[in-house]
Design a protein that fits this description.
The protein is α+β, with helices and mostly antiparallel strands and 267 residues long. It has helices at residues 3-25, 41-51, 60-77, 86-94, 126-132, 191-195, 199-206, 219-231, 236-266, and strands at 98-101, 107-114, 117-124, 154-162, 168-176, 179-188. It contains nine helices and six strands. The two termini are 32 Å apart. 13% of the residues are buried.
């Protein structure tokens, strides 16, 4: 869980405690429309029509208010921050990887060219939420040094294809603490089968031999594969970027989710 999310939860808990105290002090009151002279009837009708925008649920107004409070808090927390964070600006200026990020999706794709090769990398921001459910450990080691800022793992998948060759190499890794740890390296004779993101392609891949576990390979083979991978830009700087961008996108998607849910409740 990011520091911003943790602070948000504490603030939300405090606001709930205050809300419960207010409820105990007296009954919840809703605005009512009193009878008015004929001259003021138009105003009363306008107010009534506006109130009926909410559905029949008795909790809609309170839920909308809570969502609005959370949305306001999230927007105020980043009000002074630049629209594009410095780490992202620096990454784009390097001009190595192209970012494909669709709003509303939890997966991000990075693409780059390396000679006659096309390298695609995919990762999901859902791994951040999974990491938040794991038990927390002490933030300092025996030497009193703080743990890395982004210590949670993010699963990443690479596919490498060649314009003048058949097949594809797929590499499954774990990105954590500024490094990519290779789990598996597989080869698919059909490049489309190795890169296509469909249920049919996934089903076909399940029956194929995907190669040995990486750590069971001869050490010298492991070292050469790691050098081969690093030469293609799958290195420490990219491993530092992935968790930072995951947090950045997760925060944006959370604010978008709050806004969408509130608009639905208010409709």
């Amino acid at each position: 869980m990011s520091a911003l999310r943790a602070l948000r939860q504490v603030t939300a808990s405090s606001s709930r405690a205050v809300a419960r105290s207010a409820v105990r002090s007296g009954p919840l009151r809703f605005a009512t429309v009193q009878l008015a002279p004929r001259a003021a009837m138009t105003v009363a009708r306008a107010f009534s029509a506006s109130a009926c925008r909410f559905s029949e649920g008795s909790t809609d107004v309170v839920l909308s208010q809570k969502l609005a409070e959370e949305l306001k808090y999230e927007k105020e927390a980043v009000a002074d921050a630049p629209e594009e964070p410095e780490f992202l600006k620096t990454f784009k200026e390097q001009g190595v990887w192209e970012i494909q990020d669709v709003a509303g999706n939890d997966e991000v794709t990075l693409i780059r060219k390396f000679g006659n090769e096309t390298i695609r990398m995919m990762f999901s921001i859902a791994d951040i939420q999974s990491a938040e459910e794991e038990p927390e450990y002490e933030q300092e080691g025996e030497g009193g040094e703080d743990q890395p800022l982004h210590s949670y793992p993010v699963r990443t998948s690479f596919s490498i294809t060649k314009s003048n060759g058949k097949g594809s190499i797929n590499i499954d890794t774990m990105c954590q603490e500024g490094a990519f740890i290779i789990d598996n390296m597989s080869y698919y004779p059909d490049a489309q089968l190795g890169t296509e993101l469909t249920a049919e392609a996934d089903w076909k891949r399940r029956g194929l031999y995907i190669g040995p576990q990486f750590d069971t390979l001869d050490v010298s083979v492991q070292e050469e594969i790691e050098k081969w991978v690093q030469e293609r830009g799958i290195d420490e700087s990219l491993a530092m970027f992935v968790p930072e961008y995951s947090e950045y996108k997760e925060q944006k998607e959370y604010v978008r989710w709050l806004d969408n849910v509130k608009n639905f409740v208010d409709a």
